[in-house]
Amino acid sequence: MRACVGAQMAVLDAVTTKQQTTKQQTTGQQTEKQHTSATAEIRLTGTGAARTGTGRQSARYEVSVLLAIDVIAALSPALAICDMAGPVARVLAIALPFGWVLALLCYGGYRRSARRSARRGARRAVEACMAAAAVTPVICLLSGQSTLISVATAAIVTTAALTLLGRIAAVAALRAMRRRSGRHRALIVGPSTSVAGIVAAIRRDRTNELSPAAICVVDDPAGLPPGPLPLPVLCGCQDIAATASTLGCPTVIVVPSAHLDGIRLRRLAWALMDADIDLIIAPTIEEVVADRVTMSDVGGRLLLHIQAPRFSGPLRLAKEFLDRSAAAVLLIIAAPLMGLIALLIRLTSPGPAVFRQRRVGRNGREFTCLKFRTMTVDADRRREELAHLNERGEGLLFKIRHDPRVTPIGSWLRRSSLDELPQLVNVLRGEMSLVGPRPPLPSEVANYDEDLRRRLLVKPGLTGLWQVSGRSELPWPEAVRLDLTYVDNWSPALDTEIMLRTAAAVVRGTGAY
Question: How far apart are CA 237 and CA 417, in angstroms?
Fold first, then answer.
């Protein structure tokens, strides 16, 4: 409690000093108000916060930029269709830009998440392209223009490709503009058991425009995680709106709790509205993507509908078919390279070229996982003597950055991820997927708790969120979080995003050892 009070006083002293300096530099007098909290007195000088109108103007500008890019991307194929004879082709050319914008609108292509993240924007464009490509042949058949099916489909795919390229460049430019204009400071308000998690989530997502400025704990601060926090902690804030204004925060993020129930939140919303401060409510449910959430108004109460994860159905069957088909094609293409790697392994160290190990797949079924051998043949026997060098003691993994058991060719294979090419055989057999959680060892699964066992609801994958987010450099809790996020929020678009990120992760080689 003393540390909390001390941090609060330090923040208030800094704010007071800043306000006194500002007051000396400005003309006229400013009205001062008094705000008394449970631990300290806050003096307000009417500095206020950034206007929410600025945020709305920024959103309109971003939508306008993306809208222009989408229309321009559709114009090029439309002009090509116009060169074709026939009035129906001309109608199709005129309808293409409008239909493409409508498809993107239906699939959330202009939502905040799509405007701020190139990956999420690309996902929306891919989904819109798939929907448009499925609907267009039906329209052509119903109108008796079956000859235009191939032309219309090619136009849609071309439009989607041009949109992806344009949006990637636009999102990067808009992000640079937002960086130059500065991020919005946010005051995080809520119970001690939740506020630290909100801060971590904001800092983990680099695409958002928020920057945590301080934490306001509404209950006993003893519930905060041990160790010093990277932000000032305020206790007993009686006037949240005044506190946010004093700290220069144009945004307040609130985690509902017993201390901030519906009535108090409504009054807080009024106070923040009067102070021209944005209010963001953070639900306590974690790791649920926006695509699974819909809102409804029931008797004046907002309800969140959480869609259940999809573990079966047509989309899963399509994923199974695509996995095996792609694995067969990739095995044919990579066969010469795999043969060369196998020869190099046999020539540089004694033992087989392929390492076989029992792993656990979907629903706990064990299978033999194949990899190119990157260690000496006695690696398993030497594990006990190297246990003191394990750098992942906080979890179930066994990792050593400079493992003496790794062969010279094995080190290169690990950095390039080529050691996992034989797992394409596991994918072809149906034991693994191209994208999924890391395949665990039976000894690891034996120590799984109820939460970790959810990883076994889907097939393990060659790549996944864990692999493209840092691999072995990630702390064990973060690796678990990413795997569970994938399991609960799987979609074809998420698989596509992970596959695109895999190429960059392989080139960087981050966390591969």
Answer: 51
From residue 326, alpha-carbon distances to 130, 133, 335, 367 in Å are 19, 21, 14, 20
Q: What is the pLDDT of residue 387?
A: 61
**Mean pLDDT value across the chain:** 77
- Model confidence at 512, pLDDT cuts 50, 70, 90, reads low
289: helix, coil or strand?
A: coil
* Residues whose CB is less than 8 angstroms from the CB of residue 66 and which lie 6 or more positions away in sequence, other chains included: 109, 110, 114, 115, 121, 167, 170
Find out whether 269 and 240 touch, Cβ atoms under 8 Å.
no
Return the pLDDT at 340. 94
Whether 162 contacts 71, CB under 8 Å: no
Tokens 């060659």, located at residue = 462
Q: In this structure, how many other beta carbons lie within 10 angstroms of the beta carbon of residue 55? A: 15
Eight-state DSSP code of residue 441: P
Residues 6+ apart with CB under 8 A from 279: 251, 252, 254, 268, 269, 272, 273
Higher pLDDT, 323 or 261: 323
CB 194 within 8 Å of CB 284: yes
Q: Three-state DSSP class for 462?
A: strand
Integer Cα distance of 278 and 167 in angstroms: 28
Question: What CA–CA distance (Å, rounded) separates 218 from 215?
Answer: 10
When pLDDT is cut at 50, 70 and 90, the band that residue 16 belongs to is: very low
Residues 6+ apart with CB under 8 A from 307: 291, 292, 293, 294
Query: Looking at the DSSP assignment, which residues form a beta bridge with residue 406?
Result: 375
Residue 347 structure tokens: 């020539």
Strand 461-463 vs strand 433-435: parallel, antiparallel, or unpaired?
parallel
Residue type, 88: V
Query: For residue range 170-226, what is the model confidence (pLDDT) as tens digits?
Result: 888 887 776 666 567 889 998 888 888 888 888 877 667 788 888 888 887 777 777
Q: How far apart are CA 464 and CA 438, in angstroms?
A: 7
Q: Where does residue 182 fall: left (phi above 0), alpha (psi -120 to 50 degrees), or beta otherwise?
A: left
Bridge-based pairing of strands 301-306 and 293-298 is: antiparallel
For residues 345 and 409, is the Cβ–Cβ distance under 8 A? yes
**For residue 380, which phi and psi values (nearest 5 degrees)?**
-65, -40
Q: Report, as an integer, the average pLDDT of 257-274.
A: 84
